[in-house]
Fold this sequence. Notes:
This protein is an alpha/beta fold. The protein has 17 helices and eight strands. The radius of gyration is 21 Å and the shape is globular.
Amino acid sequence: MVSTNNPILEIEAKYGQSIWMDNLSRDLIESGELKTLISSRGIEGITSNPAIFEKAIAGNKIYDADIEAGIKANKSTEKIYETLVFEDIKNACDIFKAVYDKTNGLDGYVSIEVPPTIAKDTDTTTSEAKRYYEAIGRENVMIKIPGTSEGLPAVEATIAAGINVNVTLLFAVESYVETAWAYIRGLEKRAAAGEDISKIASVASFFLSRIDVKIDKELDDKIAATDSEAVKAKLTAIKGKVAIANAKVAYQKYKEIFGSDRWKALAEKGAKVQRLLWASTSTKNPEYSDVMYVDGLVGPDTVNTLPPNTIEACADHCDPASRIESNLEEAYQVIESLKDPDVNIDLDRVMAELLDEGIDKFIKPFESLMSSLESKVQKLASV
Length: 383
């Protein structure tokens, strides 16, 4: 039964933002919990990544039968991994197909990431994205490609091939701008070839909490290093505000790009806007609201992907209102304040470091998963 006072439903119905979930496992699918979350919580899509699959597969016996089948078929560990993951993605796509149909392809997507180990290899990323899409064979699957300088040409090529893309690991506003234009170029190439562009969807996943965690640490170090109460106050005033401010600036860029004549020419051919997706939305600092990255960025034509705990917190006490364009001047001032000599935090440096760290945070669990899967393969093969 759908709760009539669920703030998530209000966010979606009244303010035009879709709520997706950042979590996927076979347990979630087979238990029926995923279907329940769609009906009771209003979840309209799902995202996954290597870290999520590591938690889902490592030490979970629910996958053992498929692993044993892979062993008998003489599949490599990598192919067994794909068998497990593709099966979950296909089943999740089937569950979300009703949402996809109901929203005319706006929502109902399931995201799967190409291996993070190829994040800096354009050609391999492009070929793997196409292979994943064909192997999964669902129109509501979205292939995740990192928004690196090497990844964006792959985004363009993948969109031109008619494949839905979730561009992930975006931190800097400029990286988002480049992502949006890569999407547009991909559509233009496809349209020029006489192909339909009306059924292609894309989101640009803009990461939030990691920005505040990193910048707050630098601010705390500076607060500890000064005796000036005035400087301490100045530094403290910025804490926990940069990620949302940065996202608000990105949304203004979104409006510029998708309000341009170049975009309108594609829209006339049925193209869908590439929505900004707020990711990394669980609050890490217990001093902050556990739904700050939801309440602070509600707005039209956006997506927010939430981990399970944040979904429950939001369903309980989110305070929906369209805030993506509120206090814009303050948002720009927050970003500008980082240049203050007393603050002196280079945002470009921070964002570049976050991108490198983000790739590493996906590579390590991916490699850990492959290692634990290899151990499980050897164990089951000897039984």
